[in-house]
Structures
1.
Amino acid sequence: MTFTAKILLLGSGELGREFVISAKRLGAYVVACDAYDNAPAMQVADAREVFSMLDGEKLRAAIETHQPDYVVPEVEAIRTEVLAEMEAKGVNIVPSARATQLTMNRDAIRDVAADELGLRTSVYSYAKNLEEVRAGAMKTGFPCIIKPVMSSSGKGQSTVRSDDELEGAWDYAVANMRGDRQRVIVEQFVDFDYEITLLTVRHKAKEGDGVSFCPPIGHRQERGDYQESWQPALMSDDAIAAAQDMARKVVNDLGGYGLFGVEFFVKGDEVIFSELSPRPHDTGMVTSVSQNLSEFDLHARAIMGLSIPEMIRARPSASAVILADQDSEKLTYSGLAAAMAEGADIRIFGKPTSRPYRRMGVALACAGSTDEARRIAKDAAGKVRISYGE
Ligand SMILES: Nc1ncnc2c1ncn2[C@@H]1O[C@H](COP(=O)(O)OP(=O)(O)OP(=O)(O)O)[C@@H](O)[C@H]1O
Ligand SMILES: NCC(=O)N[C@@H]1O[C@H](COP(=O)([O-])[O-])[C@@H](O)[C@H]1O
Ligand SMILES: [Mg+2]
C-alpha cells in the first residue's frame, strides 16, 4: 500500500472521524484507536485498535507495532507519560507531548497561562479536600465553579451559589473526575457577555513557524457541554486582537504543529483566557460548512507540514447538537429529510450506543446571517428523531 503518511489516532469520536476524512484526502493511512469497537473514526479509517488510551502498556505497544509518522491525540484522557517517552525516542507526537501533558490537567495549563505567560484568567485556586474547597470559595466569592482538574465536556463540573452547596459540588467532582488525582479547580464565576473558541493553527511557514487564526466561533453551553456554535462571532477589533495575542503566546509556548481550540470569555472589551485543546474543538464542527478548509483539514495540513492560508475566512454559519436522552444499544434515526428541508446539513456520528446527553450528531447550516444560521441549525437538530430499540 502506498500512502503519504501513517497516522495513529488516539481517540475515535466525531472529531476524529472528520479528521480521518481530511487526512485520507491528503493520502494518509490512519489507524484509529479507542476504548470501544466501531467508534465513529474507526468506521472511516484504514485500521483500528481497541484499547483504553489510559493503558500505558497497550499505548506503547500500539505505537511500537504501527511505527506511525504522527501520533495524533483525539481525546484528553491519554497516558501522556508514554507520549513523552516516545517523543524522546523520536516519535512525532501532535502537536507535542508537552502540549498533551499540560492540557490534560487544568491546573498544569492554568499555571503556564496565568503564571508563566501572564494571561488574564478568572480568579482561581486548587483544592484536594473539602477544607481547601471552602478556602478557595472564600477567595473567589459566590457564585463559583468547581471542576475536577482532569475532565472534559463539563463532567464533574458545578456552579456553586452558597457555602452549603460546596460539599455536594466536591463530591460530584470527585465522583466524575478522570484519573486518580483527587484535585479540583475552584474558579470565580465569570459573568461574561459571550464566550468564544479561537481556532489557532501553528504551522510551518516560508520562514520558520507561522500562526494563523480562524474567525472567532461563538457558542452556548449547558451543563458545561456545548449546545450550539456560530461563526463568525461578532467581536470588537480590540477584543479579537487581545484574544489572538494570548492564543499566539500559548500555542508558541506549547510548540509543535497543529490546530488548537483556544477558549475565551469576553466581557465588554475584556478578554479572559479559559482553557484550550491542542486539537480540533467540538464547537469548531461548524467549520465543516463555514470555511473552505475546516478545522480538521487545517489540523491535517499543519501536522503534515503543508501550507496554511494566512487569512481564513468564514461565511455566516451555525451548528446545533443532536443529543440522545436514553441508554440504548439499538438506535435508529428518522426525520432527516424534514431536518434538511430548510437547507441544513446533518452529520450522524454512528456511535454504537447512546446514553442521556451523549452527542450523536450535529446539524450544520449556512445563511445570510449567523442568527438565521442558528435558527435553521437548531430547528434541524430538533427534527432528527432517535428511536431506542430493545
Ligand atoms: N469560570 C467560569 N465562569 C463562567 N462560566 C464558566 C467558567 N468555567 C466554565 N464555564 C462554563 O462551562 C463551560 C465548560 O467549561 P470548561 O471549558 O472549563 O470545561 P470542559 O469540561 O473542559 O469542557 P470542554 O472539554 O468541552 O471544553 C464553559 O465553556 C463555560 O460556558
Ligand atoms: N469536548 C471534547 C469532545 O467533544 N470530544 C469529542 O467527543 C468524543 C467522545 O464522545 P463520547 O463521550 O460520546 O464517546 C471524543 O472522541 C471527541 O471526538
Ligand atoms: Mg472547554
2.
Amino acid sequence: MEGVDYLADERKKAQFDVDEMKIVWAGSRHAFEVSDRISKLVANDPGFSKEERTMLPRKELFKNTLRKAAYAWKLIIDLHLSEEEAEKLRCFIDEPAFIDAHWVLTSCLTLIFAYAKLLLWAQRNNRKGGCPWPTRCKFGCYAQTELGHGSNVRGLETTATFDPQTDEFVIHSPTLTSSKWWPGGLGKVSTHAVVYARLITDGKDHGINAFIIQLRSLEDHKPLPGITIGDIGTKFGNGAYNTVDNGVLRFDHVRIPRDQMLMSVSQVTKVGKYVQFDVPRQLLYVPMVDVRQTIVADASTALSRAVCIATRYSAVRRQFGSQNGGQEIQVIDYKTQQSRLFPLLASAYAFRFVGEWLKRLYTDVTQRLQAKDFSTVPEVHACTAGLKSLTTTATADGIEECRKLCGGHGYLCSSGLPELFAIYVPACTYEGDNIVLLLQVARYLMKTVSQLGSRKKPVGTIAYMGKLEHLMQCRFDVEQAKDWLKPSVILEAFEARAARMSVACAQNISKFDNPEEGFAELAADLVEAALAHCQLIVVSKFIEKLQQDIPGKGVKQQLEVLCGIYALFLLHKHQGDFLGTGYITSKQASVANEQLRALYSQLRPNAISLVDAFNYTDHFLGSILGRYDGNVYPKLYEAAWKDPLNESDVPDGFHEYIRPLLKQQLLQTARL
Ligand SMILES: CCCCCCCCCC/C=C\CCCCCC(=O)SCCNC(=O)CCNC(=O)[C@H](O)C(C)(C)COP(=O)(O)OP(=O)(O)OC[C@H]1O[C@@H](n2cnc3c(N)ncnc32)[C@H](O)[C@@H]1OP(=O)(O)O
Ligand SMILES: Cc1cc2nc3c(=O)[nH]c(=O)nc-3n(C[C@H](O)[C@H](O)[C@H](O)COP(=O)(O)OP(=O)(O)OC[C@H]3O[C@@H](n4cnc5c(N)ncnc54)[C@H](O)[C@@H]3O)c2cc1C
C-alpha cells in the first residue's frame, strides 16, 4: 500500500531530536540545507534515474553516463550552482564517471585538479610565465599507474627525454608493461592527462616527474599521432564501476613543449640543465594525499548507505517466534543481528567525524605549504594513508556484511547492496593498495619510536608516544562495566595498545643486522601496529567530537552510545592485542563485552532514527529493502516483473535449446 509508513512505530521510539542529528551528520546547518536541497533536486528529476543501470549492456551504460554527465553540466550552468552545490550534485547523482575527473580539472572539485594544484602551486612559485594547464573545453585524467607497476611509483617505465634542439620532451612507452593502465576517464573521453614519467636529460635518469599531455584532437576526438588509447575492459559487477572508462595509453615518441612539465620539485632549463629545487621531493606525492582525504570523507557516505538499508530492512523483516498467531520477531531484535549491525552504524558516525577532522588537518597543511613550511607533510601523509586504508577496508567489509544481514533479498540487485559493494570495493586498491599504505604508516611509527630519545618531541596524532614510559607500564585498574564508558579509560587503553605494539615491532626489528630486512620480515606485525595506531586516531577524534557543544535533545547521549559501541567493539574484536600487550586482564575484557551488550540495548529503540538522520532520499539509497516507508514486499514483487527476462512468458532460446531437450526426455520416458 502506497503512503503508509511501515516504520512509523520504530520512528516513535526515538529518544533524541532527529532533525538536530541531521545537522551533526551533515557538519553544519548550511551543509545540511545544501545537501537536502540538491539530493531532492536529483531524486525528483527523471533524467537521473538509476533504475535500469544494472541491466544495461556496457556500451549503453556508458552512453547513458555520458548523457547524465552532460545533463548535470547543463544544470550547473543553468541553475548557477556553486562549487559546493555542484559537488553535492555529483555525489547524489551517484554514478562514478569520467566527469569526476573533469570536475576536479575545471572547478577545483575534481580529481585531476586535486593532483595538479599543488604541483602548479610550486610551479608558479618557481617559474615565470603562464600555466599550461588546460582550463576550458578539455577533459583530464590522471595517468600514473602502468600495466607493470602501480604501487611502486618509483618503478614506472614511461620516459620523458629532453631534446634541447627543439626545446621539447619526447614521451615514450618503451615496453608493454610501461603502458598506462587504469586511469579513469582515459579510455574514451579525456583530451588531456597528467602523465607520470621518468625524466631523462643528457642520458641521465632523474626519476619520476609529472607532465601535462594532450591525448586527443579537440576537433574529431581521435588520438593524436603516436598515441594509442582504449578502454581496459569490463570490471566487477553489473553497472557498478563500468560507467567509468578506465583506460590504457601508449606513447610512441610523442613530442610536447618543455613547459608542459609540472616543475614542482625540479626544473629543466632551455639548455637541458636539470635543477633540483630546495623543496622535499615528496612534494610530488602530496597530491595523492588530497585524494586520500576525500576518500576518507566518502567512506562514511558509502557505509551509512549500506547500514541505512540493512537497519530499515532488519526492522521490517520478521522471522520465528510467533505466539498465538501473532507476528514473528523483527530480526533487528536478535542480539546476533545487533552485534553485527550496530558496530557498523557506529563506524559510519565515527568515519564521518574522523573525515571532518582529516579535512581540517589537510587544509592546515596546504596553508603551511603555501608558506613553504613542509614540517607537517609526513604526519598528514601517515594520517591520510592510514585512515584511507582503515576506512575503506571497514566500509567494503561493512557493505558486504550488510548484504548478509539482509538475507537472500540482499543478494538481489534491487536491494542496492551488490552494486554499492561493486562500486566501493576498488577503493581498497585505488589511490594506494591498503596494505602498502599501512606499511607507510608503519614506517612513520618506526621512525617516531627511533627518535624518541632525541629532542624531537612527538606531536599531533603521534603525541601519545611522548608518554611512552607511562603507557608501557600502566595497567587498567577498574573492574565495573560502566568504567568502560569513561573517555579517559578508553583512550588510555587504545594508546597503550598502539604504543606497545609499535615498540614491540621496533624491538624485534632491532634484532636484525639490517633494519630493512627486519622491516620486511616483520611486515605483517607492522601492519597490525599501524592499524592499532589508526584505530586510536578514529576513537580519539570521536571522543573529541563529544567534547564539543552539541545541541538538541538527546543528541549527545546517542553519540556517546555510538562512540562507546565503536570503541568497545574494536576492543572486543582485537581482544588479543589488548590482552597480549598486558594492558587488561581477561576478566576486564569480559566486563567490556558486558558493557557493549548494554550499549546495543540502549541503541536499539533509536536505530531507525539514527539512520534517518543521514537524510538519504530513496533515489540515493537505490534500494527496495531500504525504502523510507518500509514497504518492501509489494515493491520487491513489482520490481521482479520489470526484469527483461519477464518480458515474455516463453524465453528467447526456448525453441532452440529447451524444446528439443524436452522432446528428447519425452521420447526416453516413452521408451521406458
Ligand atoms: C558511494 C559510492 C562511491 C562514489 C564514487 C566517488 C568517489 C570519489 C572519490 C574518489 C575519487 C576517485 C576514485 C579513483 C581515484 C583513483 C586514482 C588512483 O588510483 S591514482 C594512482 C595512485 N597510486 C598510488 O597511490 C600508488 C601508491 N604508491 C605510493 O604512494 C608510493 O609509491 C609509495 C608511498 C608506496 C612509495 O614507496 P617508496 O618507493 O618506498 O617511496 P619513495 O622512496 O619514493 O618515497 C618515500 C618517502 O616519501 C614519503 N611519501 C610517500 N608518499 C607520500 C605522500 N603521498 N605524501 C608525502 N610523502 C610521501 C614517505 O613517507 C617517505 O618519506 P621518508 O622521509 O623518506 O621516510
Ligand atoms: C577502479 C580503479 C581506478 C583507478 N584509477 C586510477 C587512475 O585514475 N589513475 C591511476 O594512475 N591509477 C588508477 N588506478 C590504479 C591504482 O592506483 C593501482 O591499482 C593501485 O595503486 C594498486 O597498485 P597495483 O595495481 O600495482 O597493485 P600491486 O602493488 O600489484 O598489488 C598486488 C598485491 O601485492 C601487494 N603488495 C604490493 N607491494 C607490496 C609491498 N611493498 N609490501 C607488501 N605487499 C605488497 C598488495 O598488497 C596486493 O595484495 C585505479 C585502480 C582501480 C582499481
